[in-house]
């Protein structure tokens, strides 16, 4: 797997960080396991396979495991992609996405 990680800017608190993440993913503030989601940076569709509100969401796709997690208002991501991707470019893309949403 190719690992991709990035950290977003801090929100006012954990609830606000969660709201920003769920809004950016277009899934509403109460996502559940089995809900479908589109990951814009990777341009793939997946299924939520883990939720620990307001701290973590896991998404399973055909090409990887995408993980978003945060504590104390910080939000970051750690993905494992099982496809041929340009790791530095993809990391920059996800970092830009986080920065735009948590600015």
Q: Could you characterize the architecture of this molecule?
A:
The structure is a single chain. By secondary structure, the protein is of the alpha+beta class. 26% of the residues lie in helices and 40% in strands. The chain has a 6-stranded antiparallel β-sheet. The chain starts with a strand and ends with a helix. The relative contact order is 0.28. The mean pLDDT is 94.
Structure in a nutshell:
The chain has helices at 14-25, 87-101; strands spanning 2-7, 36-39, 44-52, 56-61, 64-71, 74-81. The chain is of the alpha+beta class.
How are the secondary structure elements laid out?
Elements: E1 2-7, H1 14-25, E2 36-39, E3 44-52, E4 56-61, E5 64-71, E6 74-81, H2 87-101
Antiparallel strand pairs: 1-6, 2-3, 3-4, 4-5, 5-6
In whole angstroms, how far apart are the ends?
30 Å
Report the sheet-strand fraction.
35-45%
Low-confidence parts, pLDDT < 50 over ≥5 residues?
none
Number of helices: 2
Strand order of the largest sheet: 1-6-5-4-3-2
Which term fits the overall shape? globular
How many strand elements? 6
How would you spell out the order of helices and strands?
A: EHEEEEEH
Share of helical residues? 25-40%
Largest sheet: 6 strands, antiparallel
**Helix/strand structural class:** alpha+beta
Mean pLDDT, to the nearest integer, reads: 94
Question: What Rg is obtained from the alpha carbons, in whole angstroms?
Answer: 12 Å
